[in-house]
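Table S7 (text form). Paired inputs.
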Amino acid sequence: MLETEGLTIRFGGHAAVDGVSCAFHPGTLTAIVGPNGAGKTTYFNLISGQLAATAGRVRLKGRDITALAAPRRAQLGLGRAFQLTNLFPNLTALENVRLAVQARSGRTLDLLSRAARHQDLTDQAMAHLKAVALADRAGAISATLAHGDQRKLEVAILLALEPDVFMFDEPTAGMSVDDVPAVLDVIAAIKARGDKTILLVEHKMDVVRSLSDRIVVLHHGRLVADGPPAEVIHSDVVREAYLGGAAESDHG
């Protein structure tokens, strides 16, 4: 579904992502981990088109999309939820999601269209808000939402776009303990469908363990480990690069 080949970006003389080759398959959730500054978010930015690669290729469903801008990649099925929320701040939660539903449907609404004629768009948007436990905040202006609710709203928008590839960059960052399960349940439900490809950047190793089929480890912009969670988490290279040399016990 998605593949990077020798993907590289240099800032001056520094390679923030250095020759990363990796393939991601439908029905799988791959966690991308590594210490701060390892290149995880930069790798996401290269895949989704927020940054232009210095070298290498990105392919989606076999098509080379390296030269395409982010909006075109999204149209082709690449969905990205950002580490920092990316919302229309002056619109309500419902309006934010309804715009995504409308974009996915390809339907054009003019300013004179009666909302009642497009009740199906609103109904779909509400269903996505319910999925992330945000239906009770549908009428709230998104800028006034708590940070955790803004993160949940962004996941609802991503659901509305129905991409083939879901990219989550620390989806639970800044959330309260009570908010986290709703988002993790949504990600687990997407995975359970079996037809979507999911990439997850996450620092919380309990989340990584519970959701991932595979772990990819980046360190200094390079791919240093790739395999099943139990194998990768306890590998020497991860203990040195990700855990600072401290062995994580089976109970950790």
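Next pair, protein 2 of 2.
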Amino acid sequence: MKVVILAGGKGTRLSEETNLIPKPMSLIGDIPIIYHIMKNFRYYGFKNFIILVGYKSYKIKEYFENFYRYNSNIEINLKTNKKKILNNSKDDFNIKIIETGLETLTGGRILRAKKYIGNNDFFLTYGDCISDINIKDLLNSHKKNRKTATVTAVNPRTQYGSIKLNKNLVVNFKEKPFLSENLISGGFFVFKSKIFSLLKDDNTILEREPLETLVKQKQLHAYTHKGFWHPMDNLRDKNNLNQLWKNDQAPWKKFFK
């Protein structure tokens, strides 16, 4: 199965960095967040990636074109200009990087890559969310329920403390609790190729009419992930993820072993 990653947006809420690079190239540790996401899928055996790019796409292309240079020891003979890789990467990714336009919306990006995605089921995710989701469990849930699409539902943790009152007296206080009644889309999808019939043009937003139509048709299944999930919407999110990585508390670090 192919893993499609949406990586073409401008990432304006992280403008401190995205003025220079696309958000998927923002670093967690010294590794772009998109690579963290790809390691999750590879851990479960999925290595064929289609990255849908737009804004500052050359940065993503340069990274993967020069992957060995960035991640390997090399030997260079300055007289002959011969280069030798001294250690090979363990990652056997196969990557297609597809230009999908600067202003194209999410559904339109997927539609532009239809010929590369093919007619089989495929994964879809965004280039700015990290999780420890079990990808095989997600896929098995999708196959079992036989719907056109499966979305991963996650329980986000609020950035604010929660209080419970009784006559203006605080009777319960929780720092950054999970919002147990507020499941949201975690951005890890599985689609059948039928989804292409709901994608009209570059202006199609996947998360609106296409998914809303699937809901009406009772063709959108939810897989609930109860583990770690964290977006990188802004600088605070990025700092949180880097802190987890630095302190060896990142639940997704197992994908790198």
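The chain has one domain: 2-149+187-256.
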